[in-house]
Design a protein that fits this description.
Blueprint: E1 2-10, E2 22-26, E3 38-40, H1 52-58, E4 63-71, E5 74-81, E6 93-97, E7 106-108, H2 120-126, E8 132-141
Parallel strand pairs: 2-3, 6-7
Antiparallel strand pairs: 1-8, 2-6, 4-5, 4-8
Amino acid sequence: MEKTEAIVAYGHRLVKSTHRTTFEITKEKHLTEEGDCIIAVNASKAVADLSSEFKELARRPNAKIVITIEAGAEKETIRASGDPRLTFSHPTDLVVRMSGYVCSRTLAVKANKAAADLSRSLVKELRKPERIVNMTLAVKISDQ
């Protein structure tokens, strides 16, 4: 069983991508200097906007979530896990975490990468305000 979601967002000149345990995209259009985990803004979806089918699968204990980020010619894949505690209720944000912490903004936990781990060539693209950022979220139920 697998379900995918597509999200379109935009780069921002203040993208730092230096946070060591999370990365975030937001529907907000603005970013401040403090936003070191935010990698894209003006997103078409937050966690609350994801389909009920995606949310249901992601809450299963054996759910695996693959996040693909594309900007310009750059592409990066992050692997993470779902969690039965996910609420998917935040109206503007989507956060991927390396830890097991869950809140209303959390999309996935136990990720293999955070903002600081993204390639610097991708981050260079994410700093361009006109850059369209395409994200694909795929949740799959693992037999292991």
